[in-house]
C-alpha cells in the first residue's frame, strides 16, 4: 500500500504512468523509493534527524519492533523509523514533513493500549512523545493542570501529593495522560469521578499538516462552555487518527479526607450484580465498585497472594469524612444482606494497595494460569438494567466453550443488548466492523467526513477506528 492520498487504484494507475513516461535515472528511483511500502528514503530520514537531532531517530530493528506492538493480541507491525521530539515545535515540524511527503504518522507514548492502536499497518514514522514529560502549569485554585504526553498518571499524582488534590482516573496501567485522553480511557474510579471525557478541559493538538490547535482556546481551562462545537470532545477518544495530542489540561479533584476499602463474597453472580445495581440506585457516593467472578478471584489469589474466598466478589472503596464512611458502610451492608450475601469484610489500610494492584494485574494472573498462551482481552458496556443478564450469560458461554477466563461478555451480545463494543479500550484495529454495527451507516459516514476534513491524506494512524 502506498503512503499517499487517494484510492489504491488511482495511485497504482498513477505509478504505472510515471514508470512508463519518466526516463530512467536517479531522480526517478528516488521518487519510487519514497513510495514503496516499508521503506523511506535516506533523504527523508536525514530530514527527520535535522528536526529532532541524530540521537533522537532510530531505525534499529529492535526499536522498531518495540514500537510496533502494545498489550493487545495483535501482531507486531513495526514502523519504518522512530523519532523522539523534545517539544511541540518539533512535533509540528515532523507532522508537516510527513504530510508533505505522504508518510503515515503513528503517535506513541507508553504502549499500554489493548487494541493495537500503535501498530504501523502502513509503516511510516512513529512519533514517540515520552521525552516531552513536563508538568507545564498547575493551578490548584482552579483545580486544573496542564501536562505533556510523557507525564503518566502516577507521576502526576506524586507531583500533586502535597497540594490536597489528585487526578483519579485509573485505568490500571501507569499510562500517559495524553494517551489516556487519546483513547478515552477510564477505570475503577469512573463511577464517582468519570472518564477522561469528563476530566479533559482542553487539548493542544498538532494537526496532520503541522498546524497547532487548542481545542478550547489557548490557555483556557473553564469548567463549562457553550462556545461553538466541542472540539475537545472530538479529539478525546480519537485514538491518534485526527492529530497528535501534545498537551492536555486536566480537571483535578480534592483528595479524599479518608478512604475505606471492603470486599464481599456472594453466592452467585446474579446476587452480586443485583447488589451493585441497588447500591447505585441508592445514590451512594461509592468511589470504586469492581466485580470479580470466581475465576478472577482464584487467579488473583494465586498470582498476587490474596486470601479471598473463591466466589463472585465485589471490591468496594468509599471516600469521604470518617463519619460519612461509617454511614456509607452501614448502607452498603444493609443492601448486600437484603440481597442474600453475608457481610462486608473490611480491608486493612496497609493492604489497600495490594488489593487494587491484584485487580489491575488480573490480566497477568490469567496468563500465569496458562503458560505459553496469550490473553484475548476485550471490554464492553451495557445499560445497567442488562448487566445481570449479560454477565450470567457470558459465564455460561465461557463454560460451554471451555475457555479459561472471567465474565467478559462476547461482543455481539453486548450490541444486541443496546450496549457498546468498547467501554474504555477503544476501537483500534480489531473492532472496526463492530463500530459500524454500533453506530450505523450514517454514523460511520459522518465520522469519515470528519476524518477527511482534518486528515485529507489519511496519514494519521491509518487503519485504525474507521
From TrEMBL:
<keyword id="KW-0809">Transit peptide</keyword>
<dbReference type="InterPro" id="IPR016166">
    <property type="entry name" value="FAD-bd_PCMH"/>
</dbReference>
<keyword id="KW-0285">Flavoprotein</keyword>
<dbReference type="InterPro" id="IPR036318">
    <property type="entry name" value="FAD-bd_PCMH-like_sf"/>
</dbReference>
<keyword id="KW-0007">Acetylation</keyword>
<dbReference type="InterPro" id="IPR016169">
    <property type="entry name" value="FAD-bd_PCMH_sub2"/>
</dbReference>
<dbReference type="GO" id="GO:0071949">
    <property type="term" value="F:FAD binding"/>
</dbReference>
<dbReference type="InterPro" id="IPR016164">
    <property type="entry name" value="FAD-linked_Oxase-like_C"/>
</dbReference>
<dbReference type="GO" id="GO:0005739">
    <property type="term" value="C:mitochondrion"/>
</dbReference>
<dbReference type="GO" id="GO:0004458">
    <property type="term" value="F:D-lactate dehydrogenase (cytochrome) activity"/>
</dbReference>
<keyword id="KW-0560">Oxidoreductase</keyword>
<protein>
    <recommendedName>
        <fullName>D-lactate dehydrogenase (cytochrome)</fullName>
        <ecNumber>1.1.2.4</ecNumber>
    </recommendedName>
</protein>
<keyword id="KW-0496">Mitochondrion</keyword>
<dbReference type="InterPro" id="IPR016171">
    <property type="entry name" value="Vanillyl_alc_oxidase_C-sub2"/>
</dbReference>
<dbReference type="InterPro" id="IPR006094">
    <property type="entry name" value="Oxid_FAD_bind_N"/>
</dbReference>
<dbReference type="GO" id="GO:1903457">
    <property type="term" value="P:lactate catabolic process"/>
</dbReference>
<dbReference type="Pfam" id="PF01565">
    <property type="entry name" value="FAD_binding_4"/>
</dbReference>
<feature type="domain" description="FAD-binding PCMH-type">
    <location>
        <begin position="74"/>
        <end position="255"/>
    </location>
</feature>
<dbReference type="GO" id="GO:0008720">
    <property type="term" value="F:D-lactate dehydrogenase (NAD+) activity"/>
</dbReference>
<dbReference type="Pfam" id="PF02913">
    <property type="entry name" value="FAD-oxidase_C"/>
</dbReference>
<keyword id="KW-0274">FAD</keyword>
<dbReference type="InterPro" id="IPR004113">
    <property type="entry name" value="FAD-bd_oxidored_4_C"/>
</dbReference>
<comment type="similarity">
    <text>Belongs to the FAD-binding oxidoreductase/transferase type 4 family.</text>
</comment>
<comment type="subunit">
    <text>Interacts with CSRP3.</text>
</comment>
